[in-house]
Amino acid sequence: MARFAVRMEVDLPADMDPGAKADLLAREKAWSQQWQRSGEWVSIWRCVGEYANLSIFEVRDNEQLHEILWGLPLFPYMTMQVTPLATHPSDIHA
């Protein structure tokens, strides 16, 4: 299994149709919660004061992470920073 931290920043158009926006956000929530329930999307944290989150993924490989991220309905409106993670030798939980 591979672990990643992914920072996602969202930039929706200011003039987006409210109905289209509501639909997009509902689909985004459903997609992300599906992966959270399956265990691959381990946690999601809001970045205070920003339309952004920091999420932790534990996935089979890079391809699975790619599939999850590209499947996000908000993907076209996101900027992402993906950081591969490794266990730290000082981690008492490792």
How does this model look, in words?
The chain has two helices and four strands; from the N terminus they run E-H-E-E-H-E. The chain is an alpha+beta fold and 94 residues long. A four-stranded antiparallel sheet has the order 2-3-1-4. The two termini are 14 Å apart. Homodecamer. It catalyses: (S)-muconolactone = (4,5-dihydro-5-oxofuran-2-yl)-acetate.
Give a quick summary of the entry:
The chain is an alpha+beta fold and 94 residues long. It is built from 2 helices and 4 strands; from the N terminus they run βαββαβ. Helices cover 33% and strands 33% of the residues.
Number of strands: 4
User: For the terminal residues, how far apart are their CA atoms?
Assistant: 14 Å
Provide the succession of SSEs.
EHEEHE
Q: Counting H and I runs of at least 4 residues, what is the number of helices?
A: 2
Low-pLDDT residue intervals, each spanning 5 or more residues: none
- Classify the secondary structure makeup into a structural class: alpha+beta
Percentage of residues in helical conformation: 25-40%
Oligomeric category: single chain
Mean pLDDT, to the nearest integer, reads: 97
Query: What is the beta-strand fraction?
Result: 25-35%
Shape: elongated
Rg (C-alpha, Å): 15 Å
Give the strand order, joined by hyphens, for the main sheet.
2-3-1-4
Q: Biggest sheet: strands, sense, closure? A: 4 strands, antiparallel
Pfam families: MIase
Domain Muconolactone isomerase: 4-91
Enzyme class: isomerase
Protein name: Muconolactone Delta-isomerase
